[in-house]
Design goal:
This is Major facilitator superfamily (MFS) profile domain-containing protein. Keywords: Membrane, Transmembrane, Transmembrane helix. It is built from 2 helices and no strands. By secondary structure, the chain is mostly helical. It has a domain of 42 residues. The mean pLDDT is 81.
């Protein structure tokens, strides 16, 4: 997502400047994008102890409990 947002930022900044005639609109846009990034970072799950090579191989979500075997 950041590639899409990063590539469009200059275009959006120019449009905001043309619409409002001030850099404050660009600053507000960047502040909102920063807030969205902060929220996404805080909601992301930690992957420090997850073996990423095994993610998706079993068909179960990463960190799922092992099935109980009789």
């Amino acid at each position: 997502m950041s590639r899409l947002a990063g590539s469009l930022t200059p275009i959006i900044a120019i449009a905001l400047y043309r619409q409002f005639g001030t850099g404050y609109a660009i600053g507000a846009y960047l502040a909102v994008m920063g807030a969205i990034s902060l929220v996404a970072t805080l909601l992301a799950k930690e992957t420090k102890s997850v073996d990423l090579a095994e993610v998706g191989q079993t068909g179960e979500p990463a960190g799922a409990a092992e099935p109980v075997r009789p």
